[in-house]
Amino acid sequence: MREGTEPISHMARLLLGRVFGLLTGRRTLYAEDAAARYGPELARGRRSVFVRHLDCGSCNGCEIELSALVNPLYDIERFGIRFEASPRHADVLALTGPFTRNLETAAYLTYAAMAEPRCIVTIGDCAHDGGIFKDTYALADRPAFLEQAVVAHVPGCPPTPEAILRALAQQPRGTG
Amino acid sequence: MADIHAGIRDVCQGEVIELPRRDGRERHFVIENGEDLLRLSQWASQHDYYFCTMVANDERLLEDHIFKLYYLFSAPDGFLVTLEYPLNDPLHPTKYPSIRPSFPSVEPLEHRLYDTFGLSPHTGEVHSGTLLHTPYPPEYYPLRQGRTRDKLEERARAYSPPTHSASAIEMPEGMLAMPVGPIHAGVIEAGCFQFHLAGEVIEEVRIRLGYKHRGIEKLFQTSYTLERGHELAERVSGDASFAHSMAFCHAVESLAGVEVPLAARYWRGLLLELERFSNHAGDIAALVHDMAFELLASELAVVREQTLRLNQRVCGHRLLRGVNVPGGVHLLHRPHLNDVQRTIETLAARLLNLGKSVLEMPACRERMVNTGVLTCNEARTGGATGLVARASGLWKHDFRLRHPCGVYAIPALALADELRHTVVLSDDDLPSSIHRRVPIYLSDLQGDVFARLALRVAEAETSVHLVARLVAALRQKGGRSEPLVVPLEKLLRAVPNFEYGIGYAESWRGEIIYWLMKGPRNTIFRCDLRDPSLFNWTAMRQAIIRKPDPRDPTGRRYLENILADFPLINKSFNLSYAGHDL
Prior knowledge:
The structure holds 2 protein chains of 2 kinds. Chain A is α/β, with parallel strands linked by helices. Chain A folds into 2 domains: about 1-45; about 45-170, Rossmann fold (3-Layer(aba) Sandwich). Chain A has helices at about 5-25, 30-40, 40-45, 60-70, 105-115, 125-130, 145-150, 160-170; strands at about 50-55, 80-85, 90-95, 120-125, 150-155. A 5-stranded parallel sheet of chain A has the order 2-1-3-4-5, with helices on both faces. Chain A is elongated, with a radius of gyration of 18 Å. The relative contact order of chain A is 0.17. Chain B contains 20 helices and 19 strands. In chain B, the strands form 7 sheets. A 5-stranded mixed sheet of chain B has the order 1-2-5-4-3, covered by helices on one side. A 3-stranded antiparallel sheet of chain B has the order 8-9-10. In chain B, strands 15-16-17 form a 3-stranded antiparallel sheet. In chain B, helix 1 (about 5-10) packs across helix 2 and helix 10 (about 335-360) runs antiparallel to helix 16. At the A-B interface, strand 1, helix 4 and helix 5 of A face helix 4, helix 5, helix 9 and helix 20 of B.
């Protein structure tokens, strides 16, 4: 079922959810709605995932989809997922791009600034193995310690917001 | 008279050879004398020529055995003029005369050529490290022919860059240096800004880019053919995927000398306008978000998201990738025109309502008016382009009008009429066939954040009108059986090697230009591409720094921006880092 094609039933569902919530005093209206749409795993965890985005030379396509997650149609914060301004606060590093030489140092510093345990989710084909940019001179090798920190990969060029959302929601959550 | 022949007759003393071009809208001259080149470029700058790009080419293995430079200008009379300058001085095979005095916008290109080719102007005013930072060995010059990927890789691997201890930035008394980046506090691309602050006022900003350098030009040449290069072109700058692939395809098609089928031209125009609409909606949303009007920003973000979903329904990809192919467009199924028409109408109504309320809201005007001013003069001399130039009052600067190609060149559709009335010159001037729901007047275009926002709203409206016309044209055409793609492979094989083709498309940021030289067996011998962001980064610095207000006759008033204005100015330009870094 494609979203946006049947706005009326979507609205009706939201409305029903709201009435239900008011009657029963449950506060996770959106999570209920999300469970219906994205599967139960998203609604399962009630703790938060703080995500720091790290651009390692992407084409900006993955950034477009990451920023789309904040808009009201995905509204990622209802799942407790938040984009953080500082790697110090982050549970997960969302890495995009093929890892260019010029960004190597900055990427290490960002990773090192995270608190342990550090997790990386690679987003987009080129963050996996260089993707379409695999054969250029401008890519650096990702060192083993970064590779080991990768807990999930979201394929796609760019992946859809839903795919990213699913991957982020399944990550180990912080204590917050 | 702005005819280039008149210029050559007037100022050139040495021999200038004109070579024929297949496309009647292009002209090509070979200038062997450096002095002539300088004089002619000065003449061109006085006659309202726009400097498009400078392409370097390593032709040392070809018949001439030298480097060559190709200067590309857009002439006011509608011609694309190429000036070819061979670097034929045997004593200085890598030196060329700089046209910087007449076209200051060439500066970032000169720095770039120094990094990638090792070419430098006679005056020597270039520095390395704009694209290739410290991790690269000196004299790397990746775009020279014969430097294969393996050799380059090996050299970079063997090189251990010098370790610098962090040194304090020297600043005058009372000033503060504030470096920001390259990793920013948000979901943004990577780039470094160094602000010089006096109190809160930004006196100067140094913009350092190149972090995302992926070696795309080399990759085109080593791993792609003319028939497949569009796949990479789509991934140069993700938000302008369609415009990039369209410009690439245009270059290949002009090389092959074909015009794509009519229906394909309609689709290309339609999708280009959809891309423009979605990005303008996103930009307006981001600007409003930065002014802390969250409710409006959320509504606008929904408009953008719905446009991306429309893209998905039309061609199967939210960023319109995989549609353009050299020779036409590739659609999985014929999309429902009703869906396109109805969705875009609904979204436009919402966008224009919201945009209008933002433009009229006093609190927003207070933030935007006189913030980040790029004056008309600065825009012209600095070579600013696209929406940024238009918002500074150069409202005719649009490649869809200057050099119409594809669907914009079809007189029956009269798309140029719509485009010309994006900015309302006066209410009497508006023909009855054109209706503007949010009219923007020329007096609004003062080059500040407000002007850029207003123009985004106006251009989004124009795009909707263009989409409506194209949908009507496609509906009229009907013809389901007509193919959307012409096969190019054989045609391309017939083109002599080392012929070049120019392709361009007016993306939502400004014109994207591809310069392709064919190699043997349909390979790409040289691909040079210029994203509009390249020139506009310089323009953005101009808009941020403290400077005398040109509108004040006493010269005592200054245009100033404080640090908190920077995010707003940055969003109002919304330039591509990836497109700049390549």
